[in-house]
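User: structure tokens for this one?
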Amino acid sequence: MKFLVVLHDAFGGRGGIAKFNRDLLRGLCASPHCERVIALPRVAPIDGVDAVANPISPKLTYQLPPPSGLVRYGFTLLRTLLIEPRFDLLIIGHVRLLPLLHMLKLLPRHKQPRQIGLILHGVEALAPLPLRTSRHLLSKLDWFSAVSHWTSQKFLFWAQIEPSKALVLPNAVDLSRFTPGPPPPNLVARYGLAGKKILMGMGRLDSREKYKGFDEVIEALPELLKTQPELVYMIIGDGPDGFNDRARLQQKAAAMGLRNQVIFTGWIDEASKIDHYRLADVFLLCGWGEGFGIVLIEAMGCGIPSIGSSLDGSIEAVAAQDTVSGHRAKLGWVANPKIPSELQATIMAALAEPRPYVPVGLDYFSETNFDQRVQDLIVARLGDTSSR
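Assistant:
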């Protein structure tokens, strides 16, 4: 079988979507039925060409993008479809790339991919596409995969597509890397954390996406500090040029008298993430628009008690398809960030949990299980293509 994947980035990219794409490519290559995977990234690697120099499998061709815009990228896709043998599966790695399917009109019938799938990650699945566009393009899909049931349901609410085409493929964590360990002394000194209890959040600080719950944790701090005066809140991440929300959050903390209790680290590289997780006493991704929240399972791998939200897909990261009892889930804790007393009580409960705390059942999100889901949900769906 031959797979063509169009995506924003993977190798050399940052964030949860790039990590998911790397896992997806690995999972496809791991299939014994896979002959070849061609990946066409939309953007150049942020961390340099060296980050893509050693592909994960000899089956994978990771083709660097053309130097100009979306139109040229679209013609790169068309040229690939024309010159290569017919693909068994074309995967669209983000809903914003869905318009590329218009290029299929230029292909002869014998070059049309046998199946087309779409990957959904979270917030992009919430806003409907223009109606005429969505009806035409979504009708071409044989399936779509979401990182959580929550994301899938939000998409089905507006998309005119059969529910039977929905798949759920949650994010994965490398449990051989994300492991417990002591807080690194150099980082404790850098951030002035000696004698502190640390709440931690990590994510993109984008003024257009204020759904990650940073505001709500800052607002909870004054009440928490009454009984936990040693508490600080560390926010890891930064925002894009022109839409960086960091200054607003800093001003908010200062206006509340929390200048010394809220620490902004800025962006950190991937190699530093594990050491930073190990600083935390509790990790939170408790907002209302997260598709899944890979940072939750990474933090739990590092032994950090973690809190997701009852309002979005992060509940599935701490529940692993299990039930939630009160504020306790199978792997972590759950709170409604819009109810301050509930968020505060849940933080206190998580703080009481001894560290390290690696929950039993976290391997549900292991990379091995992710690869198996790719086989069972995506590759097996193709069936026998030899006679088509």
